[in-house]
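Quick check before the chapter quiz. The format below is the same one you will see on the exam, so make sure you can read both the input and the output lines.
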Amino acid sequence: MLASEVGVDLAKVQGTGIGGRVTKKDVEQFAAAAKAAPPTKAPGATPATPAAPAEGDQVVQLTRVRRLIAENMVRSKTTIPHAWQTQEADMSGVVAHRNANKAAFQKQEGFSLTYLPYVMAATISALREHPEVNSTFNETELIIHRDINLGVSVGLEDTLVVPVVRRADGLSIAGLARAVNDLATRARNKQLKADDLSGGTFTVNNSGTFGTLFSYSVINPGQAGILTMEAIVERPMAVSGMIGIKPMMYLCFSFDHRVLDGLMAARFLTSCRKWLEAVTLDLPVY
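Here is the expected output.
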């Protein structure tokens, strides 16, 4: 009875009584020793020892933005169970549409028409078809957002920011292009406001600009996924039993496995791919 009262496991007590039996005194001494002993730290609780620079190393202090990014990424990877899928999209229709419109677009808008607005439009269509992807996991509930506020990754010289295109589903290809150009220009000129960087419900990343083929992007906390468009590369593909050269692009999708299972993620990714592959010259720019 005494052992249970003081929280002692009798199996761990060395008995000093007749035949090795555990006495009341043994229990009291064991309990007192346990209280006096310093608490043991859980595995992994010991903080990592900071690295010491070697002779000739350069030490660069982190900027406030870089520290915030680091904290955000650690929070994402420690709280969100990431999963990943990819599909390959035939971009023939998108490439033809852009080539047919880029000169007139440049003349009217004053900046280039890129492939990013097309992928954003495909993402918006897929999010409307699969609204659970445009959501936030909230421990005991799932918040499915009405508005589609697309975050767009913008790489700067020494950092990366994700400004948000609000209510992106109400914009045309040209409207999406204008919004991205405006945010990217203000980001480079350090003119973004706090509101420009908050409220995103899903993110599109364009690392393919730098030639990447497969990216495992980290999900922004509060979102259910991030879609990365990779480089468009001409590859030989089988078409109706013949070999043809097609502009192909991988779509890589990192998603929160608490929100989406593999089937749901695949359906979303398939919707994105099918939208891109269905683009014809008739798609309105404005």
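If your answer matched, good. The two ends are 81 Å apart (CA to CA).
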